[in-house]
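Good morning N.,

You mentioned wanting to compare the apo and holo forms, so I went ahead and generated the holo version with magnesium ion. This is what I fed in:
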Amino acid sequence: MSRTPESVWSSVLNIIRDNISEQSFKTWFEPILPVELKNNVLTIQVPSQFFYEWLEEHYVSLLRKTLQRELGADARLEYRIVVENSDVNKGPYTVEYPNYNTGNTKNQESTVPLVVGTQIKNPFIIPGLKKVNIDSQLKSSFNFDNFIEGDCNRLARSAGYAVAQKPAGTAFNPLVLFGGVGLGKTHLAQAIGNEIKRHYGNKTVLYVTSDKFTNQFIDALKNNAINDFVHFYQLIDVLIMDDIQFFANKLKTQDIFFHIFNHLHQNGKQLIMTSDRPPRDLEGMEERLLSRFRWGLSADLQQPDFETRIAILEKKMYSDGIELSRDVIEFVAYNINSNVRELEGALISLLAQSSLNNKEVDLDLAKKIIKNFVKSVSREVSIDYIQKTVCEFFEVPQDQLKEKTRKRAIVQARQLSMFLAKSYTKNSLKVIGKHFGGRDHSTVIHSCQAVQNLIDTDLDFKEQVDEIEKKIQMSIG
Ligand code: ADP
Ligand code: MG
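and this is what came out, ligand included:
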């Protein structure tokens, strides 16, 4: 009894259909054409190299069992991969598919060249895709020049810079940039992309968020366009995938990304990824994907310190052509320390308010506006904090304020601290005295008078007091 390839395949399909989801069946089995049956070898035609790999990876045992059921234990399957409408026209490409019973099939991978046709749909919807036409989706305003360096980002920045000079030519592949929200991951990742484009006009750079990638993948599934989707991504020389934490628990998307990742990496392409946490803390991610991330370098971005925050604000002001007094800058930098995005938000609010009221931004206005940004608005300042601030300023040890010492510097710091405690806290004179080694209320009164006299007569001293008061006010907001 001789059977046709069609009849064997249709029996195979009937069984497979019952074993997998309808969507998977449509995507991965409907496009297959049976082409030949000879000596118990069934040849099927698949649309692409990727398609073949996918079948191999996901359906190999199902296919094996089903085919053996139809044709017996010595059944074999061969693939023929269609090369779409290619410039490099090599015609249909046949993959010798080894006997199921001997197991390993992966050795075929390297012998099958990926030839990409010209008809691939770009999920970014740019018709008439040619490789050179792929828009990188980068914002040119994110560059290295305006990415301020600080201790918080030094490693990430310099690794990023190295990658930008030599894409795929460093050990940092993939480069994973991680850190909390608003700390510059997107900025830095895009800066790398922009820098590569500047140096290497012929490299195809693509920036995409993992969210967008996921949606494109789902669309591709719906439209039976997985091949186009994957081929498109396989064209990329430098792939920047932003916010990979959103891949969590999306196993199919991870699967496809894994595939693309491998293809690109094997072909000497650069991968850059960002994540809001270190790769080891990513939950809902397949281990094999996480292990890929460890191949390169993971570098973190931390919260910028005070000086870096000032530098960032100054850079922003400069590039926006605006001016704010040093007071205001320091005040903003001092009070907003969570992340750079909030820092920028504060700056924008200041400018908006000032142009709305047609008023220059002075410290008072800044205080009013920044209040909205800082969670604990009117933190009551403590006597201890005042003592600490004063002692830091005069560089004297704080515990000396409670001693009997009559050294001039200590006495001055002690009296001034009492004076400030009286103006900035609601504590009674008695309580204030207690905080200074149990002095009585008349000592506090005397101290306050002494300080007031000095302020009225000694300009240098007055300036020092102003300076300290500024620090205290900042902490109150
Ligand atoms: P993330 O992606 O980590 O959430 P972004 O890259 O979107 O953060 O950064 C938030 C904002 O802060 C952006 O406008 C970015 O330009 C700015 N920014 C972050 N870090 C720096 C830096 N080191 N120098 C200058 N601007 C920065
Ligand atoms: Mg981001």
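The chain has four domains: 5-96, 135-301, 306-377, 383-476.

Happy to go through it together on a call whenever suits you.

Best,
F.
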